[in-house]
Specification:
Strands 1, 2, 3, 4, 5, 6, 7, 8, 9, 10, 11, 12 and 13 form a 13-stranded mixed beta sheet that branches. Strand 10, helix 8 and strand 11 form a beta-alpha-beta unit. The protein has two domains: 127 residues, Aminopeptidase (3-Layer(aba) Sandwich); 140 residues, Gcn5-related N-acetyltransferase (GNAT) (Aminopeptidase, 3-Layer(aba) Sandwich). By secondary structure, it is an alpha+beta fold. The longest helix is centred in the last third of the chain and has 15 residues. The chain is globular, with a radius of gyration of 19 Å.
Length: 289
């Protein structure tokens, strides 16, 4: 069989996003989502393509990885190849050898879906347990109660409010209006919505972007944040509920999110909005020499 590891061109990103959409299943653990690629697109199409790694066999895509910075790869595997040992050995070899162009030498981490053979094999060959993450999911079979706080889906006319909230929530100046505009040009953004919650005197207080992967499939929340001046007033719960309701209106079967387990406030906010924690996921890490 012919194996191939590749980095896509910008023109190939659309097909890969479509592949990720098809791989989103309620019966599988939370995995790399089209919305993750959409959020990365804030750095531009070329940077997004350069961060993607694709594993194919005989021309069929079986695994996709996305570099989230230089030292962390977030990856997933096609449902039919979830337990494919041959694929897992091939992927892990590529992850473990810096000269193959996936991860550099030194301290690096991999986020692979719980229960996939690739994740298990990383442990078998000496990758240690790294940062714990808490996946959460809210079923969207029934309507979502969004009463109490005004929330609106916004477009380019309110991006300055949106980006200001995300910068404040994450204590980072990186998400500018121009970054939002780049994100909005991405292929996944056609299935995305940005929402703002409003407080006293119609001040924008919380923001969320939600990403559908198609009707009957899980939708993703990424990112969600409350402005630092307005925390502790229930706006995080309100914007999460509104995001879930928007995904339901778009046909999503559930709303999913994954947050570092150390962010106990974030986990509590999602739980308060009806999201149920799933089994903790651990990165696999390789230390520097």
């Amino acid at each position: 069989m012919a194996f191939e590891l590749s980095t896509p061109t910008v023109g190939e990103l659309g097909d890969l996003v479509d592949t990720l959409r098809v791989w989103q299943l309620e019966s599988f653990p939370l995995q790399l989502h089209p919305g993750d690629v959409g959020w990365l697109w804030r750095f531009g199409a070329e940077a997004t393509a350069a961060a993607i790694r694709v594993w194919s066999r005989d021309g069929k895509v079986l695994a996709i990885g996305m570099l989230d910075g230089a030292d962390l790869l977030r990856m997933t595997v096609a449902p039919e190849a979830w337990r494919d040992g041959e694929l897992a050995h091939w992927v892990v070899a590529d992850l473990s050898e810096p000269d193959r162009g996936v991860l550099p030498s030194g301290a690096v981490s991999v986020e692979a879906p719980t229960g996939s053979r690739a994740q298990e094999l990383l442990s078998d060959v000496g990758w240690t347990t790294g940062e714990p993450w808490t996946p959460l999911r809210r079923d969207l079979t029934e309507p979502v109660d969004v009463s109490g706080t005004r929330v609106e889906v916004i477009g380019a006319e309110r991006i300055s409010d949106f980006t200001a909230i995300i910068r404040s929530a994450f204590d980072s100046e990186r998400f500018t209006d121009d970054r939002w505009r780049d994100m909005a040009t991405g292929v996944p953004f056609v299935d995305a919505r940005c929402l703002l919650a409003f407080g006293y005197k119609d001040t924008a207080v919380a923001a969320v972007t939600v990403w559908s992967s198609g009707k009957g499939r899980p939708g993703l929340i990424e990112p969600m944040g409350v402005h630092s001046d307005h925390r502790g007033r229930g706006y995080g719960r309100a914007i999460c509920l509104a995001g879930a309701a928007e995904l339901r209106a778009m046909g999503s079967s559930s709303a999913v999110v994954c947050t570092p387990s150390a962010l106990v406030g974030a986990v509590a906010t999602y739980t308060a909005a009806g999201f149920e924690p799933e089994a903790t996921r651990f990165d696999r890490s390789r230390g520097g020499s």
